[in-house]
Design a protein that fits this description.
182 residues; alpha+beta; three-stranded antiparallel beta sheet; 54% helix; 19% strand
Amino acid sequence: MTQYVKIPHERVGVIIGPKGELKKFIEDKTVCQLDIDSDSGKIDVTCEGDSLKEFRILETLKAIGRGFSPEKALELLEDDMLMLEIIDLSDVATTPKELQRIKGRIIGRNGRTRELAETLINVKISVYGKTVSILGYPEQNTIIRTAIKMLLEGATHGVVYKFLEKKHQELMQSQLDSIDLY
């Protein structure tokens, strides 16, 4: 069965890679075929018999299309528990100026907010076009989604940082508790 994903035109070259190396790498690693239309950004993915693998490749391609580096996106093929979540900001921002302001709040001055969130919660965040994308485990993605929602609703960065620090402590404690069980 063939499925497809459409990505922004300017990200097609990233998926193909220098001399087609990334496309070939993905095809070799997954034994699936990628048919890329460079003009439209449509990528047909054909995998024989393995629909889970097909889904993971589609998620990987979406992640690259949403601004993640290939190295970060390829982690989706390695870890079945890793999830891509895409938040559409066009529902919140009605003008280009408002979209820029919202993206700026999420990124923070000199990237501080995004970097702090990535470090404390151990996720990867990409702000690209009209979306914010998260690569992480389900519990982590829920925390980041909440933090982003707080920022979208006007919470100060300080309040969001405290929330992230509290959640970081809770995540660390739950990891310690799970180690104690063994």
